[in-house]
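Sequence only, no structure available. Ideas?
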Amino acid sequence: MIHIQSWICNIANKVDQISSSKKYAATFTFHSKYDDRGDWVQQYINTVSEKIIPVSYNPYNASLTIDSKTYGITQLNDYPLPIGNILIDATSLALPELLHLFEILNNNKSSFDVIYVQPTEYSTPRNSYNKF
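Reply:
I predicted one. Tokens follow.
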């Protein structure tokens, strides 16, 4: 089971304004950018991650392609996880990729961080942010 240890919400305009003391051995992301959020998160990932690993799900053959290698859904535990801190880019990944990555990480009892960049047009009352 995945346990959330902390939840942080920050407002950022430029990547260089974000100070991240945490560096990642690898970041799982989708290779295409849909909008400005994708550009921002890609710049951030390039700053904090040693390796960027593209992930995509193929619904026609129920497989996940991770870093150019395809794994059937029943073969996900065969994927050799990188050693070190792991980041998952929830901004660019779709739900199937996220769920399968979470499954791989959970089965390996690996800790990981998730980043999601929300458009500024979304409005959420400031007092609704919770820390777990």
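The mean pLDDT is 82.
Hope that gets you unstuck.
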